Amino acid sequence: MARRRLLWTLPLCACLLPLLARGRTSGELGQVWIEGRDGSLTSRSLEGFELASLDAAAAISVRVEGASELPAVAHSSARANVALVGGDRLVAAVVGGEGDRLALELAGGVALTLDVSELLALEFPRHATAACSAPARGDRLYWVRPTGFDTLDGTLEGFVAEGVRFDSVLGARTFPWAEVAALFVEPLEDPRALPEGAVLLDLADGGRLAGGLVRWDGAGLTLALDSERTLVLPSAAVREVTVGDGSAAFLSALEPALVREGWEEGGELGMRWPWRRDRSVTDTPLSANGRMWSRGLGVHAPSRLEYELDGSWHSLRGAVAIDDSVRLLAYRGSVEFSILLDGAGEPVWRSGRVRGGEAPLTLPPLDLRGVRRLALVVDMDERSFVADRADWLRMLLVR
Description:
This protein is mainly β. Helices cover 3% and strands 48% of the residues.
């Protein structure tokens, strides 16, 4: 297969960016919150905002709030969740393809052409379910049938405007896009090396990209995917930009060394609620006090997650809350969060009682210098364990 190539088509609808500003005050345009490496937090209006690099602003992240909503993708019936090699992901509409290339459209009308060697999975929410999964080897296509879908293992041959060319026990044939529930592609190469000045970009629609920040100004955010290719996104498409140079890491990107959740068999019916990465425990987007959060850990009390560290991290930042999903329930839950270091019996920090519907509680500065074991614990605070859907929000390790 051709060498890895990710081709991003840059033109935006000519009327899109002016619409973000026309007839709106600076307050309505939205704000950016700049988090300094020292933990400081400052706010600026998006109007006239310019940024050459996070280093230039001594920032570890920049978050956008209150920006105009972008128009939904024109082809909403073809909306797909796209997983890419290296951990990136996109929410996009599939608008066609040719050979090794898949044509997509992001929110706001940004066109994108993706090479198949960058693709891990393509799932259409209107069809795909939790039953869809990647094979141990090779490619897999889930074919929509009148009573469900069939699982076909084989080889992806490429894309055409009408659908997917796939070779399986049925022979080589084209499956129309309307009949594809999901497609999984065996990765062929290692993830691309990130350019200098790499950042992690969380998109407002739940997508995620990594690349080099070229500039951020009135035209939008320009992201370099490598030394030759750039992508321009309107500011309204951005939720947060975080340094990708290794000086910070989201805890949700790490694998816990120990997981304990629910009660042992025979206690409280032996109930279990599996923890979620960057999602609430109910597998919905993290939400607290009406705000969506791209990063964090969703658990249900009682819960204990432990992480092995290497002693090089200086601090931990973040917030805690009960997820907004409990607002639909009669009882909204009540928990207590605590953090323990290096197996200590007493927490270095304890939240006290946290109830559903309350605003997130920000962690105080926590010194992690030399720490090699970090435990996040959530316990019931009242007798009932109903709706104890706890969120560890944007837990960020900083060197």
